[in-house]
Amino acid sequence: MSEQRVTLITGTRKGIGRFLAEHYAAQGHRVVGCSRQAPDWEHANYTHVAADVTDEGQVKDLFARVRKDFGRLDHLINNAGIASMNHSLLTPYATVRRVMDTNLGGTFLFSREAAKFMQRAKYGRIVNFTTVAVPLKLEGEAAYVASKAAVQSLTQVMARELAQFGITINAIGPVPIETDLIRAIPKDKIASLIERQAIKRLGTCEDVANVCDFFLKPESAFVTGQMIFLGGV
Amino acid sequence: MKDQLLPFIVETARSIAEEQGIDVSKELNDSTRLFGEGGLLDSLALVSLVIAVEQGIEERFGVRVEIADDKALSQKNSPYRTIGSLAAYAAQELEAKKAAG
């Protein structure tokens, strides 16, 4: 078994996922990342696996590979997610299903397979992604917000189910961060959202990594089922 | 197939029970009750056993089976009742998966 801590991160091709992958690779973790398409970056401590987080067979293949190549899994960061910015009355059902499949389904599949792996070692850290749009009940994102509310419930229930195995599972709720996910949102909408935060600025990838670091710490063994929202929301 | 799986399940149940500090001085066989009254394992150890059996089957036979599916939990006679019933159920799922290619 590898001496190196193994950190699995979903959605690492760009944005926050890429930042976190490079952040933990730089700290000496063996980082395994995935996305449907190959990334245009690399790192000595990083292994990329092409996988669709909603495809159960591909997800299981990925875990089989981690088991075979590294023999351990310490951390899972369920970063992969998609948004849909639209009024509920204008949202196609196919979009709702796609958003639920990726955000809830993908998080469920990875958490389940990771916990099966981690329970043997009686140790594991899982970090999920919610959003401040859940507590803010943000209009214009019904499908996205509902999918993330489901991720919060999943996090809280799994926290109780996995506690006996020494596995913690928590979620981080970022404010808008300059990534592709928010590029399509009108500037005035972002400004009004920031106005509802205690600390009025866009978030950064460093802000997200800081909360992730806290959840992943071995000393955070007594912290589970918790949501930490950025910006004082 | 069940006979092939039985020794592996007995050994896995024994090692998981030992890990959990459960007394396994008695002989484990086909009719050993896994859970419930007089059962060998608590619910935590039972979950670990089911996962270990799934992983063991994948490693030995190269076939992915799900013995922890809804069907397994809803059957009146739970397939997790005894070591023998778990082996029979796992064998049935393994053969179904093999037949499906």
From TrEMBL, chain A:
For the keyword Oxidoreductase, the answer is yes
- Keyword Oxidoreductase annotated: yes
Q: What's the Enzyme Commission number for this chain?
A: 1.1.1.100
The stretch of residues making up the signal peptide is none
Alphabetically ordered keywords of this record: Oxidoreductase
> Boundaries of each Ketoreductase domain copy?
5-175
**Which GO molecular function annotations are given, in alphabetical order?**
3-oxoacyl-[acyl-carrier-protein] reductase (NADPH) activity
- Any transmembrane segments, and where? none
Pfam families to which the protein is assigned, alphabetical: adh_short_C2
Stated family: Belongs to the short-chain dehydrogenases/reductases (SDR) family.
Q: List the protein's name.
A: 3-oxoacyl-[acyl-carrier protein] reductase
Q: What is the species listed in this Swiss-Prot or TrEMBL entry?
A: Povalibacter uvarum
From TrEMBL, chain B:
Q: Where is the signal peptide?
A: none
Q: Which organism is it from?
A: Povalibacter uvarum
Name of the protein described by the UniProt record: Acyl carrier protein
Every copy of the Carrier domain together lies at 4-94
InterPro entries to which the protein is assigned, alphabetical: ACP-like_sf, PP-bd_ACP
